[in-house]
Predict the structure.
Amino acid sequence: MKNKKNSTLKNNKLKNITYDDHKQFISSKGTYTELFWNYLIHKKIKKVWGLTGQGISYLINYIPKNIEYLNTLNELQNTWSAQVYGRLTNNVGFSFTTTGPGVATALSALKNAVCEKNPLILCSPYDDEKTQYDFQSWDIYKVGKTFCETFYISKPQEFLKILNEAYYTALIKQTGVLLLVKSELFLQKVTHNSLKIDSSLFIDNKSNIQKYSTEINNQFNNKNMLIIFGKGSTSRKNLYLEKFIQTNNIPYIVTWNERQIINDSLYCGRIGTLGNHSANYAMYHATHVLIIGDTAACMVNQVFAPMFNILFLNNNKKIYTISNDKQFKLPQKSNFIIVNDYDYICSLFDFKPSVEWVQQLQESNHHLLVSLPASTKYEKFCKIAADIYSKQNLDIPVTTGVGNHWTCIGKYFEIKKSINFETQCVWDSIGTGIANSIAMYHSLNKPVWVFEGDGGTFWSGSNLLYLLNNKHLPITVTIYINHIYGMIEEYNYDAKMNPKAVPLQIKESIPLIEHYPNSHIFDKYTEYENYLSKNPISNELRFIFINLGSNPIQNSVFEINIDKEYIKELHHSNYKQILNSLEVLKTEYVYF
Ligand SMILES: Cc1ncc(C[n+]2csc(CCOP(=O)(O)OP(=O)(O)O)c2C)c(N)n1
């Protein structure tokens, strides 16, 4: 797909992917530190995250005034925030760490960026001449290579070229990049500032893209076709997709981590056992499926695949996948088209669904495009917040940590704009909620709702302390108090029902700190509902505590059981039975 030989910067430049003019970066008087920051200014980076230390301090000390430096007091949390900021600003998030323990602490968040497709550069000093036994030294270059795109700037003449490649890799591939810089270079006077880049790196071969789009147009026209939004399809600018979907009445479904509801469109819901029956129905009956973006490991991981999709339901579909990364894998046969620019291929789409199919989906949506019911205490409290969000048409960002609150909030929230939802699906570390919320505020400049478990809140304690020291932030932190790691407890409960499983032996007990500013505590549904509907937005830091008690059932989240019975009902369009189908703690999930 890449046209290495013939590419020149001039004649292959695609819209929206513009390369740099090296003359703008620096005068010969400056250091590489100055060159580095000038590059970021040129790329319109407005905020960066970092925690200082030897080796990186020179760079950090010279941050220009027009770039805001943020430190939420821990490299891990800084790096989570940075990547969410990168995604929501349609740019790249930067997190700076020192060597050894600095960069090591950030690694889980870097892997998260790779898994969740968040554009991030984790930048750290590195000196390849030192050994692993030296002060704060670790062969992080070798470590980075095992799980992400890793770049090392070791020579002055390569500085700008490698910085540029790292930036575009993070931006275009929407991934986490490790950028290591020989620390002494930051202090050196610039001797080389030429920018020689491999112009073929991120340029699509237009004629190939045209060939593929003609194939898709022929295959999909007048068929029972369905588009699925994977991550990146709409969160990155995609000017054509939205218009195309509206104009041609294209049916589409969304995924767990790429939610979007386009006005006046044939939206069929969110796929999965925690989504809408209507999306599962559309997926079951579609004969031609076009996935745009990346649904990543959610699709293939044995535990999570059923939660996020039911692609496996029927093997006789024609599937095309358009993705900006090769990491995407599907269990079913799919034609893959790797692109750097979603916009261009979408601008060439020219097909319509069959008329009967549109009628069939309008009918099924009429019956099935509803939220799943709430039966446990956890579910009821989450649904109250989700319903208020929808009823009041709130256009504010929502985020979660990982745990039962994550499945529960994710199950009920109908999000219209992709940028208004951030939640981890693949790497799945607990305690990410507050870091996400800080980044959402800094990117979108709006009040934020964050939902966290008590386990995750205290796990990310320095983030909590950061918030307590920044009471002006308009963040509403809702913490579900059950004194347990709810999601794990659910498996414990599950294990009790399944004689083959080994139940957890240790009873965890998460403590509670009693005094918070601006805090509101609820254990009754009506009181919570009344309060939140009257005060949906807070312009300063606010805590809402929901007392759940620690009963495992009341802390559980139920999902659709994708068993043979459910599939039979989908097959026969038995709407009533589909709606009444049994919900379970863990789907039985039938593989075809
Ligand atoms: C860093 C990390 N440690 C452990 C886990 C395993 N884990 C997944 S969910 C969960 C429970 C989280 O508890 P809490 O934040 O209280 O949320 P709840 O499930 O009660 O909603 C744990 C420990 C994980 N995903 N990540």
